[in-house]
């Protein structure tokens, strides 16, 4: 049965404990600032005007996330694939979500808010920076990291079962060619009809 309402969803998943339901805060407290300064990896979730969602991984050195004040954090952009997916989305829809990760820690810090882009910012040596105004911030427990054996190698899949980067590139390239062939075949069929 497809679930289409929150009431149906609550039949499957009970309401959270009030302390968990109300755990989000709207400021960067002292301990959260310390966690942010230790984070070396984060996921940046953005949405385009058409509703398309993008999640981008970002690696940094400890201290690269700057807490500007209790409502704002900032980070610089590092060279990547230059597609600008996240930044184009921020221009269209500034609401973003971030998940901060500290190596070896199961707990993560989730931060949601409104982002803006800045050229030659003073908080980083990068030519482009992002400032996030915090709407909500909360700690996320480590159950998912423990279940996923993120830091425990004994739970990792065998390297032989995971395709290499090169194999993935080759496979997606073949898929693009096949999709183009199907599109051309469809266009030819439409012309004949």
Automatic annotation (TrEMBL):
Highest rank taxon of the organism: Bacteria
Residue stretches spanning the membrane: none
Start and end residues of each Pyridoxamine 5'-phosphate oxidase N-terminal domain: 28-122
Pfam families, per database record: PNPOx_N
InterPro entries assigned to the protein according to its UniProt record, in alphabetical order: Pyridox_Oxase_FMN-dep, Pyridox_Oxase_N, Split_barrel_FMN-bd
Name listed for the protein in its UniProt record: Phosphohydrolase
Organism: Winogradskya consettensis
């Amino acid at each position: 049965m497809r679930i289409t309402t929150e009431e149906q969803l609550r039949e499957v998943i009970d309401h959270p404990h009030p302390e968990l339901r109300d755990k989000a805060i709207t400021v960067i407290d002292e301990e959260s600032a310390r966690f942010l300064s230790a984070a070396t990896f984060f996921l940046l979730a953005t949405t385009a005007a058409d509703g398309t969602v993008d999640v981008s991984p970002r690696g940094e050195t400890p201290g690269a996330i700057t807490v500007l004040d209790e409502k704002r954090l900032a980070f610089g952009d590092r060279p990547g694939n230059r597609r600008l997916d996240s930044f184009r989305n921020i221009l269209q829809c500034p609401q973003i979500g971030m998940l901060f990760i500290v190596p070896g820690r199961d707990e993560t810090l989730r931060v949601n808010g409104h982002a803006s882009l800045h050229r030659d910012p003073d908080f980083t040596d990068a030519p482009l920076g992002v400032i996030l105004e915090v709407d909500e911030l909360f700690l996320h427990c480590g159950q998912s990291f423990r279940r996923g054996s993120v830091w425990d190698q004994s739970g990792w899949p065998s390297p032989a079962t995971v395709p290499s980067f090169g194999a993935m590139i080759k496979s997606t390239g073949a898929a693009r060619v096949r999709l183009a062939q199907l599109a051309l075949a469809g266009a030819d069929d439409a012309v004949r009809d």
